Amino acid sequence: CAGTSHESPEVRQGAVEHLAANPQPSHVALLLPLIQDPNVKITQSAVRALGANDAFRDASPLLPLLSANDKLVRLEAATVLARRGHEQGPLALERLAYDLDPKVSRSAVSAIGTLGDPVFVSTLIGVLHRGEGVSQMALESLPKLVPSGPLSSDDRQTLSSDEQIARWRTWWERQAVRGQ
Question: What is the mean pLDDT of the chain?
Answer without folding.
Answer: 93
